[in-house]
Please model this.
Amino acid sequence: MKKETKRTTIYDLATRLGASPSSVSAVLNGTWKKRRISAKLAERVMKLANEEGYAMNTQASLLRREKSNIVAMIVPKYDNRYFGDIAEKFEHRARELGLIPIVTCTQRDPELEFNAARELVSYQAECLIATGATDPDRITDFCHAAGVQAINMDLPGEKAPSVISDNFEGALNLTRLILDRCQQELGWEGALRFVGGRLSDHNTVARLEGFKAAHQERGIDVPESNILIQGYSAQTAQRLLADFQPTAPTGLFVNSTIALEGVVAWQSRLPNGAELIRYGCFDWDPFGSFLPGNVGMMEQNVDIMLDHVFELIGKKETPAEVIKIPCELRVY
Amino acid sequence: MKKETKRTTIYDLATRLGASPSSVSAVLNGTWKKRRISAKLAERVMKLANEEGYAMNTQASLLRREKSNIVAMIVPKYDNRYFGDIAEKFEHRARELGLIPIVTCTQRDPELEFNAARELVSYQAECLIATGATDPDRITDFCHAAGVQAINMDLPGEKAPSVISDNFEGALNLTRLILDRCQQELGWEGALRFVGGRLSDHNTVARLEGFKAAHQERGIDVPESNILIQGYSAQTAQRLLADFQPTAPTGLFVNSTIALEGVVAWQSRLPNGAELIRYGCFDWDPFGSFLPGNVGMMEQNVDIMLDHVFELIGKKETPAEVIKIPCELRVY
DNA sequence: CTGAAAGCGCTTACAG
DNA sequence: CTGAAAGCGCTTACAG
Model:
C-alpha cells in the first residue's frame, strides 16, 4: 500500500529494522551465514523485504560485483521453429546453470545486430552468442576489445569458435532425396531449383555446394537460372517463382521454412501444382509432412549445438574453430 | 590489441585525452552541445572510444539516471507463430520508440514467471508486460509494490489493464464453421471434441463457452467426455485422443497450434483419419491450410493488440479494464 | 568552454 | 554477531 514513487532500498529496510545496510545486504544476497548474522535478524529482514515488495537494484549490485553471470544471445528472428527452439532452450539451460540469459532478435540486419551486441556488452554480459549473424567477425572484434567472450552459432565466423550444422552434407543428402523422389514419383530427372537464402551467408553457400555436388554425381548440369537466391523472406521466394509455371514435372530445394511459406503459396496458385512438383526443405517444421509435394525436411540438431555452445561458455582461450553438427533427414 | 581484463571506462579515456571524466561523459551520452563542449574535443573522444572498443557500463549509467527506458515482457514459449510474432514485434516497436526491450520466456510455469518478473523489476524495467501469464495478478501486485507499471496481454488479470483476443466470439465462430463443414462434407452433425488448453486459464474457459454456445444454438448436447483439457503440450493432446479411434464422422475444436501438433500426429495414425475427421484450430500457422481435415484457423491480431499495449505504456493511472480484440477467421 | 564533487544502491574487506 | 567506510562507473547540478 505504499505510495512513494521511489523504490525500496536496503537503507529503507535497514532504517525500519534498526539494523545496518551491511547486514540487510548480507541477508538479501545469501551471504549471511558466513557473516554469522543471527537467524532472527535474517528472518525479520526477509519478512519486511517481502512485505515491502523489495526488489534488488541489479544495476547497483552488478556495478559493485566482479561477475555479472549474464550470457547474451542475438538471434535473427523468432518466426520459425529453428530459432524459436534455440532461443527457448538457450534461456532454459542458462537458467539451470545459474546464469542470466538475455536474448534479443535482430532481423538479419547488420546494423541492428551490431547495436544489439554493443548494448549487450554494455549490460556487462560475460559472453555473447551470435546466432545466425550476418557479420559475426565484426561482433567478435567488438566483444574481444571489451574483454567479452564471443561464440558463433548457426553461422560461422573466422575469429571466434563457431557451432554450426553440417550444411554441405545435409544439403547433399536432401538433394539426393529430392532427385530420387522426382525420378520415382514423377519419372523425371533434371536440375532442381534452389530457392531462398543469401549468397553472402556461409550456410547458403555450403548448401548450394551440397546441392550442386548431388547433381554432379548424377551428371546433371545446373543452369545458373535455377539458383533463386535473393533473401530469406517468404515474399521473395514467391516473387522469384512468380513467372515459373511448370507444365512438366519439376523439383525444388527450399532453403529454410520461411522460403517454404513462399513456395507453398506459389504452388497453391498453380492449376496442378501438387502433381507436377516435388521439393524438400532445409529446416524442419512440425506440419511439414502434410505439405503436398514435400518429400523431406532436414532437421538441425539444436540440442547438440547448444551442448557445444555451453561447453565453450566461460572457457578461456577458445580457438576459432568450426564445430559441425550433423543434421537429421526427415523423410516423408 | 589491449590485453587488460578490465573494461575501458570514461576515466581511462579522460586520462588518455587529458580531459575530465565529465567532458568525456557528456560527449559519450550526447549532451555535449548543451554543455558547449568543443567539437574538437568531442571528435577526439569519439575517435578514442571507437579505437578502444569502449562500451558504456549500463549498470553505472542506469544507477545514476532517473529513467531506465526499459520495457520488459514475459512470454510463455517461442515455439509457435503467435508468441514468436508477439515477441519479435514487441522488440521491434519498442526499439523504434527509443525504448529498450527485454523479453524472456517462462514456459507457462508460475514460479518461473514470478522469478522472471522479479528479475526484470530488478533490472529497473519501467513497465512489465505479462503475456499469457498463468498468474498475472501476482505479478501485477509485485510490480505495483515496486512502482512498476504492469500490463497483461493475451491472458487477462483483475489488477492491471489487459489486452486480449475476443476468445468467446472467436470460438463461437470457429465452432460454427467446424459444425457447418462436418455437415456439408461428412453429412454428420453432433458434438465436437474440444482439445487442449487449461481450465485455470481464462482463454480456455472463454473459448469453451463459445464452443458450447455454438452447439447450444443448434440444439446439440456436449457430453463432458468430449472436453479434453489437460494442458497445452502436443503430447498431452495426442495422449488424450489415443484411444479414440473413430469409425464414423467426427469433428474437433483444437485449442492452439501446439495441441494441433498432437491432433495431427494422432490423426495420421488412424486408418482413414483424413476422410472421417474435420477440425478447426484457435491460432494460426502458415502451413495450417494443408493439414488434412483442417477447415479453418482463428488468427489473433498481434499488431492491433500491440497498438493497445504501446498506447498504455507510460500512462499513469490506467484502469484495470479488459480490451478485447477481434480475431480473424481463416477459412480453408 | 571545462572540471571537481556528490551521489545513485549496492558489496565487501575490515574492525570491533 | 554487527556496523562504518570505501568504491564500482557513471551523471549532473554547480562553480568557474
